[in-house]
């Protein structure tokens, strides 16, 4: 992918524990106005099309750092490790004791930030403990691969996690995320290329690119297996065994996490991966990684920093969202720890952060909670995160626990929605998923708007005319109505209760686009068939519906 090459300057590295990462930020981009009119030189046509669909103009942070600055910096005793368009600078490696002073002396440098030491482990080295468990606290319980009784011939043991979000599109309509590009950020995808449930990705050439930002190489199938399990919720496909929510999507597999350590540099790797995904034209980012504590205490985050704008990884996630990418991240598995709260970048305002529920739809205690430091409700949604059916690197089907697995379930469902309505903006996708949540009108700090209803979300993203999209009476005994309006207007809702003949009229304001409202006070009414009519400015829709 030629358009991605300017993102990184590739060098042969001879690394040891004495080398340290730094981020060098530049004062400006002196030639950005000229480069701004040459977007094809630094982002793909697919990225340009996504910006057009989302009405996102090009701006200065789309342009790469100044080449003259990079050339002058490269004369110092350091290695250039990765350039950032969004943060106008570059990651460098050096073992020189005075390198920060030398860099700061350059007139075009605004700031130098220490990011941590460089550690690279061969697989045989390993960490003394399961490092990924330490860093993002993945809670997994393995089972043997003996199949349980299948509930459907297609989904196998994945049936329950699909059914919980009312995802019937895969089985009934064959909607599988086709032509949608999903970037997956993780710690590695060990043995992905050897396992039958992923064979179709290689046969159909669904993996468009792979890159390891930690090791600076294209090999991502030999490191940690956490990303493999995550990807199984998205892309696995083996009839009667396991099924992800978007097996037909295209993928970018990006390693940003060193599972053996946790330093600030990994947040910058995340940012580089987000820029890579943006330049390649990714529609969706799925990241089952979160940051709070670091190996050097000073690099860790305080709860006060989870305000949607402070941590570098959250800033990167927000910029990605501003480029028209739907960004989904796991809320974190800190619910049972003293920290308890969500981890960055789940605090991003325009990021969909995903918590975990069990098979009954109830919050599970390890799932990180909100709100953010600035009192916004998080997480946003939740999905099956306890006993999630996954693939292991040795080819076994097992059940794992973690928000890491709830997140890709919804990310794949979002790809299905985008396949159904390819001109849908990321903002509308995010809105539709939230509106479809089973507790949209009683959001809480545990699971936000709750479990999305993909059947309803599909109706929401496809709506174009003034209409009643859906109505239902939920467990709260209130009637929930979803509507689409082409412009701001009032709608008159008339409800007739058949047993006693009661009639009630309500005049309600609608905003342009998607609306969901609750009509309260029906818990005392007799059960039976209701008749509802919705009178728009120039249209009347009448519906009969049954209470459950």
**Helical fraction:** 10-25%
Low-confidence stretches: 1-17, 123-151
Distance between the termini: 53 Å
Rounded radius of gyration (Å): 24 Å
Question: What structural class should be given to the helix and strand makeup?
Answer: alpha/beta
Q: What's the story with the biggest beta sheet?
A: 7 strands, parallel
Tell me the domain tally.
3
CATH fold annotation of the largest domain: Rossmann fold
Please outline what is shown here.
With 548 residues, the chain is an alpha/beta fold. It has helices spanning 32-35, 45-53, 67-73, 99-104, 131-136, 159-164, 169-173, 199-203, 226-235, 265-280, 312-322, 403-420, 426-435, 454-462; strands spanning 20-26, 79-84, 89-94, 109-117, 139-141, 181-186, 207-212, 237-238, 242-243, 250-255, 284-287, 326-330, 352-357, 381-384, 388-391, 397-401, 467-473, 479-485, 489-496, 503-510, 513-519, 529-535, 540-546. It folds into three domains: 2-117, no CATH class; 131-461, Rossmann fold; 464-546, Immunoglobulin-like, CATH 2.60.40.2550.
Notable traits:
548 residues, alpha/beta, Rossmann fold, Immunoglobulin-like, 3 domains, four-stranded antiparallel beta sheet, 23 strands
